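note to self: the first set is below, dont mix up w the second
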Amino acid sequence: MPPPSLPNSHIKDFFSHLPFFAFVLDEKDEIVFWNHSLALLLGIQENTSKDVIHKHKIICLALLKIKSLRNNTLPEKNGDISFVNDDGSKKFMTISINSCSINDQVFTVCAMSDETKRVQKENHLLKIATTDHLTGAYNRRHTISTLENEVERFRRGKTSSSLLFMDLDHFKKINDVHGHHVGDEVLKTFSEIVQKRIRSLDSFGRIGGEEFCLFLSDTDKEQAEFVAKNLLSLFQKTPISALSGTVHFTASIGISTMNEKYENVDQWLQDADKALYHAKNTGRNRACHIDDIKQESTLSSEHAREAKR
């Protein structure tokens, strides 16, 4: 027995002239009707086989979303889907569903609208609001917000994460000798090196001037030190070409790993900052962890007490 189709030609006419992409499912979730707008979107004819339509990427995603919307207890049955086109561009769509009964047959009416331009605009505005325009790193406000969330996450789950506070060495001299435009290139190159080598769950931000903060999620002391040493090596191996000559740059890094004593972001940053200045004061172009500095200080104090005896 063939699947039922919409029984009323007036209803078909109504759906055909809707300004959005629409299709109708029967009780077996088989498509019994689709409008002209959807046919254009899918690149099909209006008399195309239903089996072909069911295999289309957009329809497959829509059907999965429809199943989840039906299980949703909220009164509004709306959701979002996204996919990548053949040309590599990303498309965003919203989908809404409603049930209706026609001649004792229950149908699901599905309507989709293209929200790509709206989402792209929102993403663009979000990037402007959260990103440093020169380096592409997150700005200070977003970085601090990320760290605040991590402090709360640690309180709930005691996960180990580390903070790398980084500062370019002798950056003022680079600006004075080669010019601010070369200094900007150094900042951009420095940022590109870091951003190419971090994971999606990490976060890299510019705190101000030549100071940057790298948050490494689920990363303990040893792992953070390994990342820092690799970055220091890459900085040294990546000179900048300028009219005034080749510009080499290095950085110093202070590391602090989240633990129970940090009650807020300020305390976490302060320890990373102390470790950074220790790296600066002991030769630059190196990474120091706050725990090692405190251990050295404790040992020095013990040796001093022993000498007095």
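second set (the one i keep forgetting abt)
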Amino acid sequence: MTKQDYMDQVAGARSLPKRYRQEILRDLEELFDCAQEQGEDLQAVIRRLGPPNEFVENLLQERGIPRRRGVPVGLFGCGILAVLCLLSGGVLWWRERTAPLIIGGAQGTTDILVEGDPLVWWLLLLVVGAILALGTGLWYGLIRRGRGA
């Protein structure tokens, strides 16, 4: 492994917060340069540091830097479901509003029977979508503050 490969893997570590990335890479560059000036072999330095992910974990723990957390997949699922509910509710609401206009525009008599639906599906979908959207926003907010799972 080359010095650049090692540094690229450290830079790409998922647990490394972006705001500390440049500082840590600068420190790592200095460490490699100092070791080279003292005559230490590059591979010996890499062995001493350990695998890049381990190096990042140890460094974060040593400096007291919190690990970067990813956003749970469930959060994206809730967001997508909220959008689908809101869109479906909107489409059903639009269809319900425009159906009498379409049927009323017929020339002559028709065999079309229009029955009311006891449960207003568009309203239910809009409410569920709004609740999911609100829940998703709150969950994301908790994650950003480091309290969410």
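remember for set 2: Residues 3-63 form one domain.
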